[in-house]
Amino acid sequence: MDLKELKAIPVRSLYHNIELASQKYGGHPLFAFERHKTDYEISYTEFFEYVNALTRGLIHFGLDKKRVAIIGENCPEWIGIYLAAITSGGVAVPIDV
Prior knowledge:
Layout: H1 3-8, H2 14-25, E1 29-35, E2 38-43, H3 44-60, E3 67-71, H4 76-87, E4 91-95
Parallel strand pairs: 3-4
Antiparallel strand pairs: 1-2
């Protein structure tokens, strides 16, 4: 791919790409994982709605455009709050434990 082709690619936010994936893949599984010996799946739509709910929560509590520390294990919830933090205009600060 040369420089001219790169300029032709529209720049989208990460949130916008998640929204597009939700529209395209809807109920298909985005995440599949095991927790406490039980298998779970989260669809594209469920995850998109989850990120939206977290974003609204951050805004409601005045945490938009703030630094949000994220402490936790690698899991879908961690990814959700990370995306919510940047979607609300803030900065996600991952803390490794």
